[in-house]
Amino acid sequence: MLRFLLLRMLLLCFASSLATAAQRGPFAMRISCGARQNVQTKPTTTLWYKDFGYTGGIPANASKTSWTIQDDQAFTEARVFLMDHTLSICFHSTGHGDPAILSIEILQIDNKAYYFEPNWSQEIILRTVKRLSCGFGQSKFGVDYGADPLGGDRFWQHFKTFGQDSDRPRSVETRIKEASHPPNFYPETLYRSALVSTSSQPDLSYILEVDSNKNYSVWLHFAEIDNSVSSKGQRVFDIMINGNVEFKNVDIVKWSGDRYTALVLNKTVTVSGRSLTITLSPKEGSLAIITAIEILEVILPESKTLSDEVMALQTLKKALGLPPRFGWNGDPCVPQQHPWTGVDCQLNKSRGNWVIDGLGLDNQGLKGFLPKDISRLHNLQIVNLSGNDVGGAIPSSLGTVTTLQVLDLSYNIFNGSIPESMGQLTSLKTLNLNGNFLSGMVPAALGARLLHRASFNFTDNSGLCGIPGLPTCGPHLSAGAKVGIGIGAFITFLFLITCSVCWWKRRQNIIRAQQIAARAAPYAKKRTHFSRDIQMTRHSNYGNAHTAVENGPILLGG
């Protein structure tokens, strides 16, 4: 069954542009997940944006049966300090169905909200475990209290009693001082109601089941609104958390400065068991009183995965065409309980970062190719891509991952030769390349590894040769020699083509010249006879030649 969730993020100032926006009002982004149009909710007409390019997944309609019984379990809330302009939220399945979400609410709060000593930092995340409003009233959000928007519109669950006959409610309409102030901006109305212990049960105790071995920041709220207490010393009590006195001789009037004045006490504790117990035990005067309780889990900053390895995995994701079911968003190793599918992580203690030491992506129906950027995963020890349809050449860069101990690429469609660089993998103990379309000679360095009890499998590659169990290779040429021969053959081919073209053109010129000569032959013969006749005529005239004086003038006739 799907559990639908409302996620609320209380964000501290995370960008200069956001700080500028804060002058007009705190930043707020509310997304109605899966919605195809904007929605406004009553009675505050709060705007929820349609889900356009914000989330992934398949839209579905939520039903009332999807909600849990208690209101504060219908959503989760956390305080996060953002260092840049983006926020990435990932949901991981815990084995109980696919994750689902109704809406996401992102609200800006004060930079020092929920500041606690001595280990507060911007990297710490505070997850809301419980937030209770004691006494009269009903469960409300901050907007229902008329609270300052910088308070983050927190949800206060109404808490009617600590137990049967253990307390009685009190409420006033008097204005409460020192309430809605930075950095937490608690609503003033919150302090107008409280629970007071009884004489039959003077101690007030609240028990909450929690996760063990975690740190919790406890915030306790008080205001002296009981008319029976008018001055200091009339109500004094100790506050114990899991049996340890954390606040001794608490006097609300004295510590806050006056009646009807807000007082907030905070203590961060480590809980080793499964429960957190808060006890108010009276010491002098009137009985114990409390207005509200907040319990936040302190999530310490986790080491992140090396950014170079994250980018290498993103490249691998694209190259293999990983389906959406793999996710592969956010940090591969954080949180530790939910690493990326098929990714094994190891903490590099010397650098304080997580690194990738294993990839288990066998029998996943993957296609594509193995990118050269896989060599950026410098700490890989095991790679298993067997039983897929990954093709192309094995990248030579893989030979630089000297930590590799197991490489299983069997039963894929890899082709080409095994890179010579694979011989540099001196830590390699298992190599399965069987069931591919590889060819050429197995690198000699890899063959030598068989003498060191390494387990290699090259079978079912019809083109491989060169080691026992495979065919004998013919004259082996290196890749460079093969390239040189190919280039030489190509140049020779071009030379032959050029010579053939030149010979053909020369032949055509000769034939054309002969054809022209043949057509001109009759005319040449006539010119030859004509020239000969002229010559003969001139020769016969030489003997009969006379001067003009002898023959008289030459007459021109028509």
TrEMBL record:
GO CC list: membrane
Signal peptide: 1-21
Keyword vocabulary terms for this entry: Membrane, Signal, Transmembrane, Transmembrane helix
Domain Malectin-like span(s) in chain numbering: 71-297
Cell compartments where the protein resides: Membrane
InterPro entries: Leu-rich_rpt (IPR001611), LRR_dom_sf (IPR032675), Malectin-like_Carb-bd_dom (IPR024788)
Membrane topology (UniProt): Single-pass membrane protein
Residue ranges of the TM segments: 483-504
Domain of life: Eukaryota
Main subcellular location: membrane
Gene3D superfamilies on file: Galactose-binding lectin (2.60.120.430), Ribonuclease Inhibitor (3.80.10.10)
PANTHER family registered for this protein in UniProt: OS07G0107800 PROTEIN-RELATED (PTHR45631), RECEPTOR-LIKE PROTEIN 4 (PTHR45631:SF181)
Name this protein carries in UniProt: Malectin-like domain-containing protein
Organism name: Vicia faba
